[in-house]
Amino acid sequence: MSLVYKAEKWMKEKMFGCQTCGQCILSHTKMICPMNCPKGLRNGPCGGTLDGKCEVIPELDCVWTNIEKKKAGAKDLKIHLPPKEELLNTASYVNLVNGKDKATRLPHDFVDTRHIAASSKLADKMGRGEFVVTLEIPSPLNPDGLSRVEKIMARTREHVDAVNTTTNAGGVPSLHSTETGKVVMDHGVESIIQFCGRDHDKDDFLGEVEKAMDMGYRNFLLLTGDWLPQDERKVAQQTWFPMDSSQMIHFANQQLEDWQSRLGTVPFVGCAANPFSSPMDISVERLAFKRAAGARFCQTQAITHVPTFAEWYQQVRAAREDDPKLTIPSLPLVGSKKLFQVLCRLPGVYVDPSLHAIMERDDFQRASLDWAFGIAEGVIEVGAAGVHVMNFGMPPAMIDEFLTQIRGRAQEARTRAGLQFQPTKV
Ligand code: SF4
N or C: which end of the chain has fewer CB within 10 A? Predict the structure, then answer.
């Protein structure tokens, strides 16, 4: 262990809570060490920040909220790459002098790929301004569970444009998205395949996306990922995630031209956003950052309060009137008191008192379905591109009722609001 390393560690631990990543970006983060984020994010907060607190350790302030507050809205549309492992626990001053840290210390420009059209039916529909319905089906824990996915698809395939086949929902290990996606694809419906930065490094991730495209998948939702429930919650480099969502989006975006010429297909890359993450302006900036990185559509965290979504969406859309509308708000259909508690415990989810009150009623399933229609119409009237349906224990007949009625209601809501969607290439 070199003297320089020891001296740097001693001094920077005291001054900045340094975690000795060896590729120091303090000069880009207002002198707040980002490696005190339990996930090790180097490009901004995850979507789970509520009231400026950390999603993983709620007793702590979100490190990135503090950085963004100090930046006071100064736009920084460049990206930091994941730290190099071989530089961890080495002297960043030495790495600065010999240049070993250059690739990961200095931020990189984004690539503009807007001229390359995505090859997905979902992208085409959204580009034409058609209302889209997506459905969340968590991947089962083992192959036996695929028969349940089969049954859901047999009932719903006529009514949905794409299905998110979620991997490791709630942090519980499951089959991968691509395995569940096969059942969805067999029913003639596109899947939205999910990858988490928590679970992959760059090479592994790009290889997996290419493999998934080879299997016929076209839509990809790229997320940082929640903390796994069984993992100890701590601030330490051993627990940093290999990548964050914006790095994944950036890496995929850099490959688009190559994939187009070599494979003849271009993935439709999406990201997540949380309108209830607060402060709201940081959530809005975060989505703008992911869009600059290459995200073309966005699915939100569960929406339980229309005015908050409306305010957030207005900020997201400010000065972008001519851009396509590509935000799909998530809508919880809650038909079980037990699963309502699960919804309430999900990281970063705000559950409005109106839904709590409904869950106290004897006829809570019917009231909850009516509430969901109300939320859906509310978000559509302010311009949402569609809705993403998440089931929390609603009986199949009531899900079907929602899916068979929602397009008609969406059309009425758009007419009421005087909305016109212009076709645009995505
Ligand atoms: S960015 Fe890295 S080197 Fe700089 S203070 Fe944080 S952990 Fe230490």
Answer: N
